[in-house]
Amino acid sequence: MDKKDYRFTQRPVNKRSNDASMIYGIRAIIEAITSGHDLEKIFIQKGLKGDLIDELTALVNKTSAPVSTVPIEKLNGLTRKNHQGTVAFISPVKYHDLSNLLAITYEEGKVPLFLVLDRITDVRNFGAIARSAEAMGVNGILIPIKNAAQINADSIKTSAGALTQIPVARMTNLTEGITYLQSAGCKVMACTEKGTQEISKIDLRDPVALVFGSEEDGIDGAILKFVDHHITIPMRGKMSSLNVSVATSICLYEANRQRY
């Protein structure tokens, strides 16, 4: 599509993360993880060593939270408190397991309709997609752990609250998620301007997962090799591409038109 998208503080730290509770200090983050909180992002100072940081690293590796190793200046820019080389943000939503989402969808007698978002990083696009997805009955959204828009105040506001309603799952490798969706009976379809099949001419009534790609360079080539169909939205005007959130809305409308 468009190729251009413990210790807590309740005070906004910056515009990017002004909805999430920031926690800092190694023990505080360990306690947050062990008590079941999903972390939206974790920052760890480069070169940090010790038994506690080893314990934290082991715990983090068992979660789906994205981790960035950063210089101390980055951490100091997030908080002036004694962060001990670690800062994290607690997610305002609970992330889901993809296999559980599929199981629940089938158990409820629904025909699965999922979205897979490959490296969509603009929170406004992400929020707009979630709003359309919730309105169109999407059963879940799959995103990568890294290179994905954060669920924060901006994305929740843009989604009109839909991100607190629609289940979101995240995985390290989206191709693994796509393979799982296929094994569970879903046809995985990549929506791209180079697609060979018009969306209105392909059957969307069966279990389907629609894939949409980065605002910068579309869907990753490695992912395109795994999908079942390459679909496109026919363009009648002079514009050759659409914003990814607009394209998603059009495709979801077509799925609903066919189904209902």
Approximate shape: elongated
Count of individual helical segments? 9
Under CATH, the topology of the largest domain can be stated as Alpha/beta knot
In helices, the fraction of residues equals: 25-40%
Largest sheet, strands/sense/barrel: 7 strands, parallel
CATH C-level of the largest domain: Alpha Beta
Descriptive report:
With 260 residues, the protein is of the alpha/beta class. 33% of the residues lie in helices and 20% in strands. The chain has 9 helices and 12 strands. The protein has helices at 26-34, 51-60, 72-78, 98-107, 123-135, 153-158, 174-183, 221-224, 244-259, and strands at 8-9, 21-24, 39-45, 67-70, 86-90, 113-117, 140-144, 168-171, 187-191, 197-198, 208-212, 229-232. The strands form 2 sheets. The protein has a 7-stranded parallel sheet with strand order 8-7-6-11-9-12-10, with helices on both faces. β7, α6 (153-158) and β8 form a beta-alpha-beta unit.
